[in-house]
Amino acid sequence: MTRRQDWLLLALAHRKGLPMTPVQIQKTMFLMSAEAKQHVGGGFYKFIPYNYGPFDSDVYSDLDLLESHGLVASAATSRGWKTYAVTPAGLTASGSIEPAADARAVGYLKQVVDWVCSLSFPALLRAIYAKYPKYKANSVFTG
Known about the structure:
This protein is mostly helical. The chain has helices at residues 4-14, 22-35, 37-40, 58-68, 88-97, 103-118, 121-131, and strands spanning 48-50, 53-55, 72-76, 82-86.
């Protein structure tokens, strides 16, 4: 079974070193939990409605863990948050994880990563709120 940290690494690896924002990562993992639940397992993330929709702080803990193992690198932004990207070691590790993961779920994950990264921040939140309105409950986003 693929661990939740593996799905996180596979998502970042799909970008091949291009960074993802926290919102893009959160929404990717959320969509995996909502749309590919049967493939990600019972120990996956548990999302709650938060400032910008579905959120689980464990995503950040897992990013920190992956970073401590040299598989992910973070970079501070001028806005006070970080972006995350896979490292060369992370790409190598993901290459051994992907063949063991469910191929349909990996394909879906790649589609989700491409989709979330193609949208602006407001468009991504609007799309998530349109399909999953309960996650808008605590949102500070008004756009």
